[in-house]
Specification:
This protein is an alpha+beta fold. The protein has two domains: about 90 residues, no CATH class; about 200 residues, no CATH class. It contains six helices and 19 strands. The protein is globular, with a radius of gyration of 19 Å.
């Protein structure tokens, strides 16, 4: 096991996570190590103990989870960007999920202390939609994963970090308005997406009560007169939302036996929030129409 003595204790999803400094360079919320013991410890290398879960991601790293310890064992010569991506976007959420936290593959944004979840498969447009909303009055909590916690007042969402992941062609004035952006390089060596910061990094992990859950569906099924996919939004029931959210639950893939518990667990989160399945039209017009509709629903 390759020990790294210089670590960073950071706040991700309102959990204290100890990360190897040499691997993670993103602007993250730091935690005073004297105030809080780590909830999760990430180490680069192979474990020297029996683990609860062992699985590979994209055949470039093997992730092993033993309690609150997560081991990330990369292929020889794996690029720094890819390793950082595997640690931040895979090892950490899977490690927290293995401990019982509810980690959902979703973008999250907040406005007036209300959080909205954008849930959907990879490639459906969560990051693009989150980028547009972040430049039009919404505050970005996370563009790819969020932790949910059931509290007395309802479901509270906790973001991870405020960066976006966008293709170069999406970083445009049409999409992001006048927002000042900085791109810090590729998400991973095999990806064409860039890590993009909208404005200044937040000084804290954002949290808010979830008032609306939206299942994003692929566009193109319903066309308007000008042949541009139109905005459609239909109210959905608890069963459909629960099933969609359970499909996006982040958990170690070797924990398939846990499927029933995940469905039961997700069923408690759909209570007390608005729930829609949404198809967003293409281009700036589609995003603008969606933003107007979303604001009207939240303001009701």
């Amino acid at each position: 096991m390759n020990a790294i003595s210089n670590n960073r204790l950071v706040n991700l999803y309102d959990r204290a996570v100890l990360l190897p400094s040499a691997v993670v360079s993103q602007p993250l919320v730091e935690v005073d190590q004297s105030d809080r013991p780590p909830d999760l410890v990430v180490t680069i290398g192979s474990p020297q103990t029996l683990c609860d879960y062992v699985f590979s991601i994209d055949d470039v790293v093997e992730i092993s989870i033993a309690g609150k310890c997560v081991y990330v064992d990369p292929l020889p010569g794996l690029g720094e960007l890819t390793l950082e991506h595997m640690v931040l976007d895979h090892a950490v959420p899977h490690g927290l999920s293995a401990q019982g936290d509810c980690l959902l593959h979703a973008a999250s944004l907040m406005k007036n202390q209300q959080a909205v979840l954008l849930v959907g498969d990879s490639g459906v447009g969560k990051s693009t939609t989150a980028a547009y909303l972040a430049s039009h009055g919404w505050e970005l909590m996370s563009d790819d994963s969020v932790r949910l916690e059931r509290q007395t007042e309802g479901v509270v969402a906790y973001g991870s970090y405020s960066g976006l992941r966008l293709h170069d062609g999406q970083i445009t004035k049409q999409l992001l308005g006048q927002t000042i952006l900085s791109a810090s390089g590729l998400v991973a060596d095999y990806s064409s997406k860039l890590r993009v910061q909208v404005g200044e990094p937040t000084a804290q992990v954002l949290a808010a009560k979830v008032t609306l859950s939206l299942i994003l569906e692929p566009s193109g099924r319903e066309l308007s007169v000008d042949r541009t996919p139109a905005l459609t939004a239909r109210s959905i029931g608890a069963a459909e939302l629960c099933a969609a959210m359970a499909m996006q639950y982040l958990y170690p893939p070797t924990a398939a036996h846990d499927a029933i518990r995940r469905i039961e667990y997700m069923s408690q989160f759909q209570k007390g929030m608005g729930q829609y399945a949404v198809t967003i039209g293409q281009g700036e017009t589609g995003l603008s129409d969606f933003a107007h509709w979303l604001n009207s629903v939240v303001d009701e």
